[in-house]
Automatic annotation (TrEMBL):
Gene Ontology MF annotations: ATP binding; ATP hydrolysis activity; ATPase-coupled transmembrane transporter activity
Limits of the ABC transporter domain: 11-47
Protein name: ABC transporter domain-containing protein
PANTHER family linked: ATP-BINDING CASSETTE SUB-FAMILY C, MULTIDRUG RESISTANCE-ASSOCIATED PROTEIN LETHAL(2)03659
Matching Gene3D superfamilies: P-loop containing nucleotide triphosphate hydrolases
Organism encoding this protein: Amphimedon queenslandica (Sponge)
Keywords on record: ATP-binding, Membrane, Nucleotide-binding, Transmembrane, Transmembrane helix
Family, per entry: Belongs to the ABC transporter superfamily. ABCC family. Conjugate transporter (TC 3.A.1.208) subfamily.
One Pfam entry name: ABC_tran
Coiled coil regions in record: none
GO cellular component: membrane
Membrane topology according to the record: Multi-pass membrane protein
TM regions (residue ranges): 153-175
Length: 189
């Protein structure tokens, strides 16, 4: 996705730069953390803001790939990855509930769910099929950028005080600009 940005990895992100989606922000933050080449990484749920296919890719290629020799503390709700972790600490309301994967499996079984058959895995398989069919989600994000419907503007003006107030503001804007132009014209003579 960096190739979609005008200045590549040097693109400014934030208030004066490019506006990114939640998933893109999560990936940029993760990439910045990995670039630091630290010994210990604290990843606070980087998989929650992305879809299941991207989540699996991040886990396999980044966490289990690039960070394989590092100490990684991964906070996540996506339990399908827990079997691939060295240690698991399950917390509930700030307290340790269990320290192994079996405690988590017991909780899922009590709810009538299995870690391997969770909805996230079903979503992953569905998303993988869509990707294989040739759909391109990045293009969809790019197209939706900057498109605002007229209805949005109408609702905005209604919320701001109605049509009369909006017309008064526009009239005052024109009067103000006319005043600036007149002052410049008068000073120029």
């Amino acid at each position: 996705e960096i190739s979609l940005l005008e200045n590549g990895d040097m693109t400014l992100v934030g208030e004066r730069g490019v506006t990114l989606s939640g998933g893109q922000k999560a990936r940029v933050n993760l990439a910045r953390a990995v670039y630091r080449k630290a010994d210990i990484y604290l990843l606070d749920d980087p998989l929650s803001a992305v879809d299941s296919a991207v989540s699996r890719h991040i886990f396999e290629k980044c966490i289990r790939g690039l960070l394989v020799d590092k100490c990684v503390l991964l906070v996540t709700h996506q339990t399908q990855y827990l079997k691939q972790c060295h240690s698991v600490l399950n917390l509930m309301e700030g307290r340790v509930v269990s320290t192994d994967i079996s405690g988590i499996n017991d909780q899922w079984d009590a709810k009538g769910m299995d870690v391997q058959e969770s909805k996230v895995i079903e979503d992953y398989e569905r998303d993988e099929e869509e990707i294989n069919e040739g759909t391109n989600k990045e293009v969809g994000e790019e197209r939706s950028h900057g498109i605002v419907s007229i209805k949005t503007y109408v609702n905005y003006f209604k919320a701001g005080g109605g049509y009369v107030f909006t017309l008064i503001c526009i009239a005052l804007l024109f009067i103000s600009e006319a005043n600036v132009v007149a002052t410049d014209w008068w000073v120029a003579d």
